[in-house]
Amino acid sequence: MQSKYYYLMLLFVLFSGCQALKTNADPYRSEANIPVREHSVQAVLWQQHSGEYKALCHQAFNLAKFQLDEILLRNNREGKPLAIITDIDETLINNSPYNAKMIETDEEYSKEGWIKWGLLEQATAVPGALEFLKYAESKGVQVFYISNRYAVQDKETKANLEKLGFPFIDEQHFLLREKTSGKEERRQAVSKENKVIMLLGDNLSDFAEVFDDKSTNERNEIVENLKDKFGTEFIVLPNPMYGDWETDGLYEGSYNWTPAQKDSIRKAKLISY
Ligand SMILES: [Mg+2]
C-alpha cells in the first residue's frame, strides 16, 4: 500500500516538473488550431460597415482642414514651400478587402498576396481624404506620399490613386519603400526643400522616428509625451486591422510566432479584471 502511494507521488512530481519545464521553455505555447485570421473578423467588419469608422475619418480630415486654414492664416508664405506628408494605406485608401480575403482563404499576410491585391487597383478612398488633399492643393500646399508599399508597386499604386483623383501623383511626390520601412530618411528628404506643416497616418511611425520599433509601453508613453501634436501637426486615421501596435507591440517585434502562439499571446495580453 505504502509503495503504491510512493509511486503515485513520484508520478505526480514528475508530471508537475514536465509541466513547469514546458511553461518555462515557452510561456506562449498553445496547441490551439484556429483559422489564422479569425481574430481580425470584427476589425474588418467594423472598418467596412460601421458608420463610426467613416465618422472618425471625417473627423480627422475636418480637423486637418481646420488646422490647415489656421496655418495658412499665420503663414506669410516666405521661405520654403508648404507641404503635407501623408501615408497611403488606411490613411488615404481602404485595403479592407485584402484583409477580408486573408480571412476567407485562411492565410496570413504575405508580400505576394499584398502585391496581388495592389495590382487590382481596387482600393477605395478613405472618407474625407480626397476632399482634404484637393483642398490643400487648391491652397498651394504640396502633398508628398511616403508609403511602405514596395518599390515594385509604384505603377499600380499611382494608378489606383490617380483613378480616385488624388493630386500630385508623380515621381517627385512619391516615396515608396526602397531600403528600409523606417520613414525618417524620406521625411528628411522632403523637409530639405519644403516646410512640412502636417503629417497624416494610421500608424505612429508615420509621424516621427521616435515611434519606430517600440514596445507597447514605450509607444503609449511617447503618445502621452507628444499629446499636443495630435490633431494639430499629426492627424491620425483609425486602423483596427493591422499596424505596429500589433507587430512591434503585441508580438514584440518577432515574426517567428506560430499562429497558435500568436493566439496565446493575444489572449494573454487581454486586460480583464
Ligand atoms: Mg498606413
UniProtKB/TrEMBL annotation:
The keyword Signal applies. Residues 1-25 form the signal peptide. It holds the Pfam family Acid_phosphat_B. Keywords: Signal. GO terms for cellular component: cell outer membrane. It comes from Phaeodactylibacter xiamenensis. The keyword Signal applies. This is 5'-nucleotidase. SUPFAM superfamilies: HAD-like.
